[in-house]
Specification:
The complex is a heterotrimer. By secondary structure, chain A is mainly alpha-helical. Chain A is 34% helix and 7% strand. Chain A has a two-stranded antiparallel ribbon with strand order 1-2. In chain A, a hairpin with a 2-residue loop joins strand 1 and strand 2. The longest helix of chain A is centred in the N-terminal third of the chain and has 18 residues. Chain B is of the alpha+beta class. Chain B is built from 15 helices and 18 strands. In chain B, helix 2 packs antiparallel against helix 3, helix 7 crosses helix 8 and helix 7 packs across helix 9. The N and C termini of chain B lie far apart (79 Å). Chain C is α/β, with parallel strands linked by helices. Chain C contains 15 helices and eleven strands. The longest helix of chain C is centred in the last third of the chain and has 23 residues. The chains are: A mainly alpha, B alpha+beta, C alpha/beta.
């Protein structure tokens, strides 16, 4: 068996970066699936892309710019309505240290 | 042998831009609104909302980049900086990574008479984070207010060219001044519209390699800049001299404890996974935008100071004081320019500059209120020039001018009117002064004796007596003339 | 109502029936709501219905007609939309537990457009969670079934829209297409769908999956219906920085125009291995039909087509990993409280997202992470250039390109669920078109031996949607398949 494209530890690191609390068993399945997908993608390694520019935007365009004028904001209660937890007009989250 | 160390410091300055609406939506940027009232689907990061950049913010960033001598990337690109934090609504910050608006600029600073060029690595456009409010009713929660989230920011990153706390302070002052003169930032450290993080390391003098750097955050007051940096330098020196190693970490200065404290230890290197923002196609700066930015490049403070010292006769000190705020600088320039014509050209611009500078520093500034870019003066610059012209023409004395100015500041009346109403004009009638002088000379024979026998210092006594008799309204020049005539010839 | 076949009529016919008073808009809403109630239990195409609102909107259309006011191009036409399009006051869940019960405070641009055209919104349609999937089995609220065979998938991710339109539960629908998500379900369900040029339709209010690929696309039981829907939703929107200013065309006017002399490129890679023989057979017949219409078939090779799956499954997940970072349980959606903030994030996201979404977030995060960006993300974007160049070269030799929409007819529920890669390979013909940003249509072209619909995909150069409508309509008229409805739902 060749070396895996992604190790369990790498998968754990990626899950941490993505803030996905996956159990070891979930992660094991995930690692196997990612490994086979990344293995398939190894076909790209054969392609010669020297001198090829990347296409970040499929249709050539420039970003339009907005005039600096104020538009209506959301009513306060509507802004907070979907919050899982709110307090004193703010979105409440577990305490963060700064 | 004791090793001596050299600090190496680079700065990242975040400054909010003075625009009405946020970077990517139309919400107001006004400071101090109730929490979560200046928010919309875009700046709350609601599903499906999309950003559209603010033209005015970009224009300001371009103008600043030009003022700092940056090369402008006319094709620049927005990128996403991915990280999770409650104050970052979308889970990423829209910033710039490759291709920022400006690169390779410089700012010249002067400490102890030595000029140094501090490199500007890059200037890029981004959006501010929201504000985490701590405490609150339930102590175990942090409350997030998204009013500030999405406010246009400009990040200006310096090269690690600074070598002392004094240089850091000087760099920040000069940079803040430039931003204020360009009208792009209000220079308010306390409200956080001008923020600075410093990367500090030390190395043995002569060592070409950099030491391990510590990021010092929250330097939010000019009072603390020097102290915070100095403390961190001393701390690192202590660590190295004690045989330890400096740890790469984030610290912040605590004014209460007067030292720097650890904020975050060394984590796994943060991986921001920057990539071009697919919601925002390339930012192309049109020729029109570039021309507009160049046209709005007003005279910057350093150039003003140079001109004022050569053309308006100011000392370096005066020039520095008067160029500390764009409003004060404009007031001074208006006053100095208005004065010569009011004196029928009998005053050179250099003389006018000196007169205006002195009076503004002694009388005007302590009655002037500045807030951000706003400055409220007790009178208009034109009104002050009129007062100063009365002094030049000998209508009032310099001392009287101070009282008249105080009156102008409280009542808003013009100098001429106050002089007329109060009869404050100097007595220039030589026959009147002559009769007063004769009286004084006759009734003080002893002092006349002393004067004539060579004790000329007694001359002042006679002047004083005449001034007293005329309640200070006699023209001192005339008094001098008359007294000399009476006393010098026996 | 005397006439009972209104549900099988096209949207264009329904609009005329309402306009001439043959049927009221309210009657149509009742008819369709009744059908949904009767049939959707078997299909699970709808996630939410809004009957009161629909009746009120229909009543408003009827009042407008009675008052002699001008009626919009979709006046009184019952429509339904994919549940990743934001609707003010109506739940928008993206078929995710993460957004269960979430109601946006604003309407997507296309929803505003539908309303102003007089369309009546019946409800929101099922999809693969966050539009990630090719079978609608990734919905947190259960899979949608194919009306032609309830054991089979309707395709995905716009399985709800395709099934609802095919089963005449809605006259027309809007879906979204990132890598084939309106085209492949249309092919599986025997309806027509258009994936517009990237930038043709505003994405404002479409919950982002992969921002550089996402487009809203219409589905209908006829080419004319899809063309009319496209005309309604297309056009510039200043709220989407990727929305183009290029003028739209009256796409419907292309219906009925001759296609004689049109050069039709037949993608050779679309006839090879991996394709079901019924599918290749149907495509060959379709090419014959086009020849009888006067089109000139030419053989075209797209050498980089084979790399499209790898390229797409790097680019799209990379963008998705960032787009889905906003689902953090702070401002809306699910929250699972953990011990601290990071724990809360991790638990919330692990509980809120289904397996396929997690897989793509992982894949995308990996492709952007330090050390892998160049080898994966950047490389994929370069291969994307090669794919784009293939199409440029092809369009120098032909006016449109045809291929199967999908390599097989609808597959069985569960058939590919355990093999993500096999599922991804479903999209081989649709993905490269998305990567190139060009428009495409999927139009029914036959049935398999088992009676399952087969679709033909036609693509054209950017902004040539009119050309697609012209050829698809001519083909549709020539092969006469569009009037077929699934036997159990007529």
């Amino acid at each position: 068996m060749t070396e895996p494209k992604i190790t369990f530890e790498q998968a754990r690191h990626v899950a941490d970066l993505a803030r996905l609390a996956l159990s070891d068993s979930e992660l094991e399945v995930m690692q196997g699936q990612l490994d086979s997908i990344l293995g398939y993608m190894a076909e790209l390694e054969k392609l010669d892309i020297a001198g090829v520019e990347p296409t970040f935007y499929s249709v050539a365009m420039e970003t339009p710019l907005r005039t600096d004028i104020n538009a209506a904001s959301l009513p306060h209660d509507e802004a907070l309505r979907a919050a899982p937890e709110q307090c004193a007009g703010g979105f409440a989250v577990p305490k963060v240290m700064e | 042998m004791v090793v001596s160390y050299e600090p190496v410091i680079g700065l990242e300055v975040h400054s909010q831009l003075l625009v009405r609406s946020k970077m990517f939506c139309g919400c107001s940027t006004q400071f101090g609104a109730p929490p979560n009232t200046n928010v919309c689907p875009v700046c709350l990061g609601l599903p499906g909302a999309l950003p559209v950049p603010n033209r005015a913010a970009i224009a300001m960033a371009v103008r600043t980049a030009l003022a700092l001598g940056c090369q402008i990337n006319t094709h620049s690109r927005f990128a996403r900086k991915n990280y999770f934090y409650p104050d970052m609504a979308k889970g990423y910050q829209i910033s710039q990574y490759e291709l920022p608006i400006g690169e390779h600029g410089a700012l010249t600073i002067e400490t102890d008479g030595v000029k140094r060029r501090v490199g500007i690595t890059r200037l890029h456009q981004e959006e501010d984070a929201a504000k985490n409010l701590h405490g609150g009713a339930s102590g175990h929660n942090t409350l997030v207010d998204f009013n500030r989230g999405g406010t246009p920011l400009m990040e200006i990153v310096s090269e690690p060219d600074l070598r002392s706390a004094a240089e850091v302070e000087e760099y920040l002052k000069r940079l803040r001044e430039i931003l204020m003169f360009l009208g792009v930032n209000d220079g308010n450290l306390e409200e956080g519209s001008f923020r600075c993080d410093a990367n500090i390391s030390i190395r043995p003098v002569g060592e070409p390699k950099f030491g391990t750097r510590v990021e010092l955050k929250n330097i939010n007051s000019f009072r603390f800049v020097r102290k915070a940096i100095e403390h961190e330098i001393v701390r690192q020196q202590g660590v190295l001299q004690g045989g330890g190693v400096v740890i790469q970490e984030t610290r912040s200065y605590s004014p209460e404890q007067d030292k720097t404290v650890v904020m975050r230890g060394k984590e796994e290197a943060t991986d921001y996974r920057y990539f071009p923002d697919p919601d925002l196609p390339p930012l192309v700066l049109s020729e029109t935008m570039m021309a507009e930015a160049r046209a709005l490049l007003l005279e910057l403070p350093a150039a003003k100071r140079a001109r004022w010292t050569t053309e308006l006769g100011l000392t370096d000190y005066d020039a520095t004081v008067l160029s500390a705020h764009p409003g004060v600088a404009a007031f001074f320039e208006q006053c100095a320019a208005a004065l010569p014509p009011l004196c029928q050209g009998k005053l050179t611009s250099s003389e006018a500059g000196k007169r205006a500078a002195n009076f503004i520093q002694s009388e005007v500034l302590r009655r002037t209120k500045t807030e951000g870019l706003d400055a409220q003066f007790p009178t208009s610059a034109q009104a002050l020039a009129e007062l100063l012209s009365l002094v030049e023409q000998g209508v009032v004395s310099g001392k009287m001018a101070k009282d008249i100015f105080a009156e102008m500041a409280t009542t808003g009346a013009g100098a001429k009117k106050i002089v007329d109403v109060k009869g404050l004009a100097q007595v220039k009638d030589s026959s009147l002064i002559e009769s007063q002088a004769k009286q004084v000379v006759e009734s003080n024979a002893k002092q006349v004796e002393q004067y004539r026998s060579g004790k000329t210092s007694v001359f002042g006594f006679f002047v004083g007596q005449i001034m007293k008799a005329t309640q200070g309204s006699a023209d001192p020049k005339l008094v001098n003339e008359v007294l000399h005539r009476l006393l010098d010839q026996p | 109502m005397t006439n009972t076949d209104f549900h099988t009529r096209s949207a264009c016919e329904l609009r005329e029936s309402v306009a001439c008073g043959q049927v009221s808009a309210v009657e149509l809403v009742r008819l369709f709501l009744g059908r949904i109630e009767k049939h959707d239990g078997r299909l699970n195409a709808f996630l939410h219905l809004c009957p009161e609102r629909a009746l009120a909107e229909a009543a408003a259309v009827d009042r407008a007609r009675a008052a002699g006011e001008p009626l919009g191009p979709l006046a009184g036409v019952p429509v339904a939309i994919k549940d990743n399009l934001c609707t003010r006051g109506i739940p928008t869940t993206c078929a995710s537990k993460m957004l269960a019960g979430y109601t946006p405070p604003y309407d997507a641009h296309v929803v505003e457009k539908l309303r102003s055209a007089g369309a009546v919104l019946l409800g929101k349609l099922n999809l693969d969670e966050f539009a990630m999937g090719s079978s609608t089995e990734n919905s947190a609220f259960g899979p949608t079934r194919n009306p032609w065979d309830l054991e089979r998938t309707p395709g995905g991710s716009s399985g709800g829209p395709a099934a609802a339109v095919a089963a005449c539960l809605s006259a027309v629908a809007l879906g979204s297409d990132t890598g084939g998500s309106v085209r492949q379900p249309a092919s599986f369900c025997g309806v027509t769908a258009i994936k517009p040029t990237y930038g043709r339709v505003s994405r404002y209010g479409l919950v982002a999956f992969a921002s550089s690929l996402d487009q809203v696309g219409p589905l209908g039981r006829s080419v004319r219906d899809a063309a009319r829907m496209l005309s309604v939703v297309a056009g510039h929107d200043p709220r989407d920085a990727t929305s183009v200013a290029t003028a739209t065309e009256p796409y419907e006017d292309e219906c009925g125009k001759a296609v004689r002399g049109m050069r039709v490129g037949v993608v050779q890679e679309g006839l090879g291995q991996g394709c079901d023989s019924d599918v290749t057979g149907a495509l060959a017949k379709a090419v014959d039909t086009l020849r009888t219409l006067g089109c000139e078939p030419v053989e075209i090779s797209l050498p980089h087509l084979r790399y499209a799956v790898s390229t797409y499954y790097i680019v799209a997940p990379a963008e998705a990993s960032s787009n889905l970072a906003r689902f953090d349980g702070v401002r809306y959606g699910l929250r699972v409280r953990g011990g601290d903030l990071i724990d809360t994030y991790g638990k919330t996201r692990a509980a809120g997202f289904g397996p396929e979404v997690k897989r793509r977030i992982m894949l995308g995060t990996y492709a952007l992470s330090a050390g892998y960006y160049d080898a994966f993300y950047l490389k994929a974007q370069k291969v994307r250039t090669l794919i784009w160049q293939d199409y440029q070269a092809a369009f120098a030799k032909c006016d449109v390109l045809v291929s199967p929409t999908a390599p097989t007819p609808a597959f069985l529920l569960g058939e590919k669920l355990s093999d993500p890669l096999a599922m991804y390979l479903q999209d081989i013909f649709t993905l490269p078109i998305s990567l190139a940003g060009i428009p495409a249509v999927s139009v029914p072209c036959g049935f398999s031996g088992q009676g399952l619909p087969i679709g033909m995909q036609v693509c054209a150069p950017a902004f040539m949607e009119g050309r697609l409508v012209r050829i698809a309509h001519a083909f549709e008229q020539a092969c006469g398949l569009s009037s077929r409805t699934p036997p159990d739902f007529s």
